[in-house]
Amino acid sequence: MKKQLLFLLLLISVATVKAQTRGVRLGYIDMEYILQNVPDYTDAKNQLELKAQKWKQEIELKRNEVNKLKESLKTEKVLLTKELILEKEEEITFQETELLEYQQKRFGPTGDLIIQKAALVKPIQDQIFTIVQDIAENKYDFIFDKSSDLTMLFAGKRFDISDQVIRRLTRASKRDQLSKKQLKELDEKEAKEDMLDESPEMAERQKLLDEKKNARELLLEERKAAREAKKKEYEDRKQQLIDERNAKKNGTTVTPTADSKEVTDTPKAESKEKAKEADPEKAAKETEKAVEKQQAQEAKNESLEARKKKQEERKQQILETREAAKKAREDKIKEAQDKKEQNKTEN
User: In the record, what terms sit under GO molecular function (predicted)?
Assistant: First the structure.
């Protein structure tokens, strides 16, 4: 506690001196968050947890063996001599001591679990510290670790450089597999990402620009697709028209298609098609309206079918109810007649 207080006082004094010349630039990292997002560390940690689980199972088996020895001694104690009892008690004590030593070896303060955890974290921590120093150079005055013992009562998200550290950790493994051109593109991308991280306002502005760009590209793609579809439709109709004219000249007939029904040989129809080709957006809107109209008609037909089906079901239900009532009346009449006949027989 005293060390932390001295550190804070030293920090405040240094910050005061720096504040007299320029603003103090602060940043922080969350070591736990970074480690959770490093794939190599996560895989190694999972393997270590599997080992720890296996050690726990071994400890549980040893404990069960000791308990069995105790139960056995408790049951047979009255039948054993003092020497045999003493011998079994020594065996139990030895087994308990062995169990305790094994627990300490695996899970003690200097046990295998702690040592392997430290060996697992240290290389990654060294990389993180190197990256933090590289980021901090000429950019930050102080960088803290949020997950350390130093209490942070408040930490603004814009001062968090954990994602920068994670990106640089993952970049190192990719660089060996890239060409010079790809490395150059990656460096430009990294510089842009780092700049956005340092300026949240710029990052927000870039996000809005990217969203607008994506929306514009999507709209252009939709318009292009509509133009292509309309162009293909026009070409198909034009070809159909040529085939029909050739058929008339040769005295043969051409089977009309669904598209050809809408095409005529009049100059007016041709000019209309040309107008549609000249304005594909308008043609696309007309096609969309026709599709919507068709969908509305189909929905209406489905609604009528559903209503008709409901009426049929209701009609069938009424008929079934009537049949059931009629049958009940007939059964009642028959029962009364049978009873009457029985009374006559008895008299």
Answer: unfolded protein binding
Helix (H) or strand (E) holding 213: helix 200-250
Place of tokens 């190694």: 44
Q: Cβ distance 265 to 241 under 8 Å?
A: yes
Q: Phi and psi at residue 264, in whole multiples of 5°?
A: -120, 170
**Are the CB atoms for 41 and 35 separated by under 8 Å?**
yes
What pLDDT is recorded for position 298? 79
Q: Name residues whose C-beta falls within 8 Å of residue 111's C-beta, 6 or more positions apart in sequence.
A: 104, 105
Mean pLDDT confidence for 65-73: 92
Whether residue 58 contacts residue 102, with contact meaning beta carbons closer than 8 Å, is answered with: yes
Burial of 64 (0-12, 13-18, 19+ CB in 10 A): exposed
Q: Three-state DSSP class for 37?
A: coil
Give the span between the Cα atoms of 149 and 80, in whole angstroms: 58
Amino acid identity of residue 169, one-letter, is: L
Q: What is the pLDDT of residue 140?
A: 80
Is-above-0.70 flag for pTM?
Answer: no
Q: What share of the chain in percent tops pLDDT 70?
A: 69
C-alpha 66/C-alpha 103 separation (Å) is 14
Q: State yes or no: pLDDT of 275 exceeds 60.
A: no
CB 263 within 8 A of CB 269: yes
**Per-residue pLDDT for 86 more than 70?**
yes
Helix (H) or strand (E) holding 121, with range, is: helix 112-136
Q: Indicate the SS3 state at residue 279.
A: coil
Residues 6+ apart with CB under 8 A from 117: 48
Which residues are 100's β-sheet partners?
none
Share of the chain above pLDDT 90, in %: 14
Q: Report the C-alpha gap between 34 and 190 in whole angstroms.
A: 18
Measured in degrees and rounded to the nearest 5, phi and psi for residue 142 equal -140, 140
Instruction: Name the helix (H) or strand (E) containing 330.
Output: helix 280-346
Instruction: Give yes or no for a contact between 292 and 246, defined as CB atoms under 8 angstroms apart.
Output: no
